[in-house]
Structures are given as structure tokens and as C-alpha cells.
Amino acid sequence: xxxxxxxxxxxxxxxxxxxxxxxxxxxxxxxxxxxxxxxxxxxxxxxxxxxxxxxxxxxxxxxxxxxxxxxxxxxxxxxxxxxxxxxxxxxxxxxxxxxxxxxxxxxxxxxxxxxxxxxxxxxxxxxxxxxxxxxxxxxxxxxxxxxxxxxxxxxxxxxxxxxxxxxxxxxxxxxxxxxxxxxxxxxxxxxxxxxxxxxxxxx
Length: 203
Ligand code: ZN
Hints:
two-stranded antiparallel sheet; Peptide Deformylase
């Protein structure tokens, strides 16, 4: 197995929609194992196929703590079957080295996907905030959507991107998501809102 090169923000593959996996072949399995190696080598909690330059509907997540055994979840051809509630999320991305920002997310999701054997499974994420946002973050990668598109404050986020010599969010990509933002504003500032925990990249 090998560690793959991570595609950085600005490369077109990150903005392209992905294709469904048709055959659960050895090639697909090897890609997934390489994605896991790559995610662990970069201390990530999630990685999507476009981030290693492959336009397929595959992502992997592992939200286990560093002192716990690995607990990877593999999502192939995922579909979001429920998303509700709202939360604040401070995120980063392995394709955006060192840049983190505050984004809008749903607080409860249900996703249906296939595993490496092609078998369907359904996963509900509600209480586990890291898992809930990781699912949304990685799912977005399969549709060419990046975490900065969900920025709560676009000017602030563009300032952060500039600091790291990254391009600003393209105007037509930013998702205003007014109802999510209003819902977040109504919530009291909770501990989770101030903990600077990152999705994708854990430093
Ligand atoms: Zn990412």
C-alpha cells in the first residue's frame, strides 16, 4: 500500500463532480487502502477520492482518538438521506494546508452508502459532532463543494485564505445558507462552538 499525493486547493479535480463506482474491483479496494494510508499519514480524520486526484464517489473517515485503535469507515456511492438541525463547525482540509475557518453545518445527518464489498449500510450521525461534520465535509468533496463554500463569514475566510497564499472563494461557489446561519445564531455559545477542532486535518 502506498501514500498518495494530496491534491491542493486550486487544482480543477477538486471542483469536478465524481462518478459512481460500478465495480467493486481489486483496483477500487487498493485505491481505498491507499486513501486510508494517506489519511493516517497526514493525521486526517477524512479523505475523499478527488483529494488524491481520482474522480470517484468514495470517501473514508476515521474519528477515533490517537490512543484508540484505528476505526475506519469507508463510504462508496454515498447518498445523504437526511440532514437537519444546524451547528457551527471550525474546519480545515488536507487540500488547504493550515487554513481553518468557521462554517455552517447540519447537526444531524443520515447517510446511506456501500462498503468495499458493495453491501449497503446506513449511518446516522447526531451526537458525535466530529463524525457529523466529517461526513458532510467529505460528502461535499464528491460534488466539487469545498468547506470554505459553507463559510459563515466570507470576508473573514478570504482573509484567512490570503494569509496562506490561497485563492479567495469563487463568487459563484459561496453558499449563503441563510436558514442554517439563522439557526446557528439562535443557539447559545456552547463549548463546541469555541473548541477549535478541525475536520480533515488534525493538528
Ligand atoms: Zn477536505
